[in-house]
């Protein structure tokens, strides 16, 4: 009796050949290798999920069925010669363990388990200007790189190489720019994947320009208009001085026409 139980256990252990790990990206396709011997001619292929063995795709008596479960409807491809299963348009819910049961025409039987991990592509990071300041040496700028992805590492690339800059672990860069166009790239990375965004910056006012004098800013036309306004204000005062009135009126008209 004891020997018989041991024998059954040994068969079951030998049954499960391997546990394969497969990574796929959200929305992409992934192929789950059946692990079957390529020389086998398969007569039964059963792909299932969950501990209660819910069939999702099967091949039996020459009939293929890949629409057994609504959550995978239209997304499965079963290769009846290799037994491999392709899942298209991966969703988060596809991230789980899959079981394949293969029987060949010689009645060889193997069961494989495949773990599918659904990964998400990294999103482009965002570069924001935190602060900038003009000094004698040039413009100091502080940029912050952010991303919606969790636990990524940030790194920066600055061109030309001669630009001085420092960075910290939190994705902040500070650099001194002059009038040369500078290309700044933030790279977020996680495992094998990277995503990047760039900005181009330069310093426009390297030295603060001397403030223009009030007279220059006012301009000739403004000056004339001011004189004209003064003359108009003087009209009521000179009004009852009789003869000078007409002379002043003439000159005020002259001023206005010249300021147009
Ligand atoms: C394969 O699935 C069918 C149901 O579609 C089931 O009747 C059959 O027993 C399964 N075969 C194996 C080897 O799991
Ligand atoms: C099998 O398990 C899944 C999840 O645990 C459940 O949604 C499904 O209804 C179960 N199927 C049967 C036939 O019990
Ligand atoms: C898979 O995605 C493509 C484009 O992303 C879409 O056209 C197609 O209808 C989707 N198929 C299924 C079965 O969801
Ligand atoms: C099925 O798998 C075999 C062996 O891997 C391969 O040669 C063949 O091209 C595949 N068929 C399809 C339709 O992908
Ligand atoms: C397969 O996935 C399950 C659930 O995600 C996990 O618990 C298990 O450790 C994985 N197996 C291997 C061999 O990585
Ligand atoms: C700007 O600075 C870089 C390095 O700091 C230098 O190589 C370059 O010549 C400077 N350009 C100008 C226009 O000053
Ligand atoms: C981030 O960088 C550190 C040190 O270079 C490394 O140990 C860690 O694995 C990296 N993390 C990610 C998510 O790439
Ligand atoms: C990283 O890339 C190498 C080679 O391109 C690949 O073998 C490995 O599986 C990848 N690792 C991850 C976690 O994607």
UniProtKB/TrEMBL annotation:
InterPro entries: CD2/SLAM_rcpt, Ig-like_dom, Ig-like_dom_sf, Ig-like_fold, Ig_sub, Ig_V-set. One of its GO terms (cellular component) is membrane. PROSITE patterns: IG_LIKE (PS50835). It comes from the Eukaryota. SUPFAM superfamilies: Immunoglobulin. It is found in: Membrane. Residues 1-18 form the signal peptide. Residues 125-200 form the Ig-like domain. Keywords: Glycoprotein, Membrane, Signal, Transmembrane, Transmembrane helix. The chain crosses the membrane at residues 218-240. This is Uncharacterized protein si:cabz01074946.1 isoform X1.
């Amino acid at each position: 009796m004891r020997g018989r139980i041991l024998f059954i256990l040994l068969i079951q252990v030998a049954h499960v050949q391997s546990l394969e790990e497969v990574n796929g990206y959200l929305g992409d396709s992934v192929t789950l290798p059946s692990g079957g011997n390529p020389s086998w001619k398969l007569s039964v292929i059963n792909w299932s999920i969950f501990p209660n063995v819910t069939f999702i795709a099967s091949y039996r008596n020459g009939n293929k069925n890949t629409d057994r479960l609504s959550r995978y409807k239209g997304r499965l491809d079963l290769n009846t010669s290799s037994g491999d299963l392709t899942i298209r348009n991966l969703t988060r819910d596809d991230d789980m363990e899959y079981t394949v049961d293969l029987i060949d025409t010689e009645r060889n039987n193997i069961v494989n388990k495949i773990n599918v991990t659904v990964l998400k592509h990294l999103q482009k990071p965002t570069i924001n200007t935190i602060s900038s300041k003009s000094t004698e040496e040039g413009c100091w700028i502080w940029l912050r790189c952010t991303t919606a992805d969790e636990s990524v590492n940030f790194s920066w690339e600055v061109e030309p190489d001669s630009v001085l800059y420092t960075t910290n672990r939190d994705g902040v860069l500070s650099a001194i720019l002059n009038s040369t166009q500078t290309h700044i790239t933030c790279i977020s990375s996680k495992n094998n994947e990277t995503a990047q965004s760039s900005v181009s910056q330069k310093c426009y006012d390297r030295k603060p320009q001397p403030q223009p004098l009030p007279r220059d800013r006012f301009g000739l036309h403004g000056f004339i208009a001011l004189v004209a306004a003064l003359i108009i204000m003087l009209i009521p005062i000179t009004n009852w001085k009789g003869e000078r009135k007409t002379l002043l009126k003439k000159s005020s008209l002259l001023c206005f026409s010249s300021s147009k």
